[in-house]
Amino acid sequence: MVHHSTGLPVKRAKSLIGKWLRDCGDSTETLNAILDEAVSIRPAVFQEWVTKAIQRRMQTGFWQIEDKWGLTSYNIDANAKRFEEMGQ
Q1: Could you give the 3-state DSSP secondary structure of residue 31?
Q2: Which value, in Å, is the radius of gyration of the alpha carbons in the chain?
Q3: CA–CA separation, 73 vs 75, rounded Å?
Q4: Cβ contacts of residue 67 below 8 Å, gap of 6+?
Q5: pTM of the model
Q6: Which of 25, 58, 66, 88 lies at a CB distance of 3.0 to 4.6 Å from 71, suitable for a disulfide?
Q7: What is the spatial distance between Cα 29 and Cα 57, in angstroms, rounded to a whole number?
Q8: What's the whole-number mean pLDDT along residues 57-79?
């Protein structure tokens, strides 16, 4: 997905994923959540958007909140849609 979204060769895309993972504190859940969001948003400059999203989450301590409350695997958008469909 990163290879296709960035246009980078596979080897460089893998290296970029490794860098992003390191920047996320080795949290695959955080990186996957950011990548899922990027795929759904489809930013014009995918690589820059993901890099900035990682920086923003790591600087604000958002990842600490995710871990503390167990939100790393919680799909907020899907659950919001489910509640919306239920009329809540």
Answers
A1: helix
A2: 14
A3: 6
A4: 27
A5: 0.66
A6: 66
A7: 13
A8: 63
At 1, list the tokens. Answer: 């997905």
Provide mean pLDDT across the span 1-22: 93
Contacts of 45 (CB under 8 A, 6+ apart): none
Is the pLDDT confidence value at 63 over 60?
no
Q: Which residues contact 27 (CB under 8 A, 6 or more apart)?
A: 21, 63, 67, 72
How many residues are listed for the chain in this entry?
88
d(CA 78, CA 2): 23
Tokens of 21: 């993972």
CA distance 70 to 68: 6
SS3 49: helix
